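can u do me a favor
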């Protein structure tokens, strides 16, 4: 069978795809509008609590939050769009007409699944280019309690490292390896578990196996005095990767950035299983848009006049939501190290692909 033979006629395929895409994005728009409004009601008080913040900051928060909401609820919208489209076609006896014309169930679903595959590609690009950057900026903004961001996008921020019993906090890190530079450094120096002094510095660079900091001041806790001190060495034995790779957030990283960070962590001898699962999930997650028409197909086949169309719609929704539950569970188990990374990301997709095929073949007639 040729590739063209896998689909209905171009007119029918375009008609079904248009119905599916329109319902998907209409449902997504409604969800985004409602959920963004509810989120703003929750967060607006915190945004306005910082002096000088106003409507511009609320609008900025919304522009950063909307991509996250779209990314989260697009698969649900695809499921709803597929079910509503197929239920309507079934109710109007259009599915019966297509099958009477000699089309199989897979041919009937082909326009929707191809549309889902295109949506999956757009979703991957959207997550990779827009959502990751919005998430990174929003997380940094929340850390400073919606104050003006003191850092440029892409730099590491607010990193904590322990060294020789002392705690080191760096507000901003630029560069990597021995070329890394530290800004706004605070060292909490402890003696037998008690805080003895607090050392602050504006800037630090790599020096031997430690870090040379300048513009240094030391606050002595016992005497409550603040005194300037010469340039000094801190963090003996602290490697650059402990600052630059102290916290890798997969949600704030693009696919290429996360893959690069995993390689650097492996080179530093640090565990990467959870991040590898998240890396694979950046591919399997968007592909759920391809799977949803298959899981919702139970609402397409069977006689609508039998009175069981509503039951079929509920079954389709249940299968879709069970997939999302299994997907989140497998990813959580992967983060705990109970599942291998590839299995954590792909097992739910492959499992429900087989379940969808089995249900489709069982209920087609």
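np, heres the sequence
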């Amino acid at each position: 069978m040729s590739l063209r033979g896998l689909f209905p006629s171009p007119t029918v395929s375009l008609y079904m795809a248009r119905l599916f895409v329109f319902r998907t994005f209409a449902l997504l728009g409604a969800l985004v509008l409602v959920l963004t409004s509810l989120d703003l009601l929750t967060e607006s008080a915190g945004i306005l609590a910082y002096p000088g913040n106003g409507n511009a900051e609320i609008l900025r928060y919304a522009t950063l939050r909307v991509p996250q909401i779209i990314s989260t609820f697009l698969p649900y919208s695809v499921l709803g769009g597929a079910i509503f489209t197929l239920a309507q076609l079934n109710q109007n006896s259009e599915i019966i007409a297509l099958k009477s014309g000699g089309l199989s169930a897979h041919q009937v679903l082909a326009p929707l699944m191809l549309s889902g595959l295109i949506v999956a590609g757009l979703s991957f690009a959207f997550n990779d280019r827009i959502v990751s950057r919005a998430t990174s900026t929003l997380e940094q903004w929340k850390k400073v309690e919606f104050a003006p961001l003191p850092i440029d996008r892409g730099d590491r921020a607010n990193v904590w490292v322990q060294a020789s019993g002392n705690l080191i906090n760096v507000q901003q890190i630029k560069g990597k390896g021995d070329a890394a530079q530290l800004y706004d450094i605070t060292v909490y120096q402890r003696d037998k578990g008690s805080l003895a002094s607090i050392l602050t510095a504006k800037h630090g660079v790599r020096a031997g196996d430690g870090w040379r900091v300048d513009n240094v001041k030391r606050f002595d806790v016992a005497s409550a005095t603040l005194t300037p001190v010469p340039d000094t060495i801190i963090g003996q034995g602290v490697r650059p990767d402990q600052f630059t790779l102290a916290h890798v957030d997969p949600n704030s990283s693009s696919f290429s950035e996360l893959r690069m960070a995993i390689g650097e962590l492996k080179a530093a001898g640090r565990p990467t299983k959870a991040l590898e699962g998240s890396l694979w999930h950046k591919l399997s997650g968007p592909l759920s848009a391809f799977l949803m028409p298959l899981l919702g197909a139970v609402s397409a086949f069977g006689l609508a006049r039998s009175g069981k169309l509503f039951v079929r719609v509920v079954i389709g929704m249940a299968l879709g939501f069970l997939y999302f539950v299994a997907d989140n569970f497998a990813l959580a188990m992967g983060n705990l190290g109970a599942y291998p990374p590839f299995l954590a990301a792909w097992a739910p997709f492959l499992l429900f692909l087989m379940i969808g095929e089995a249900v489709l073949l069982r209920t087609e007639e």
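The chain is about 60% helix and 15% strand. hope that helps!!
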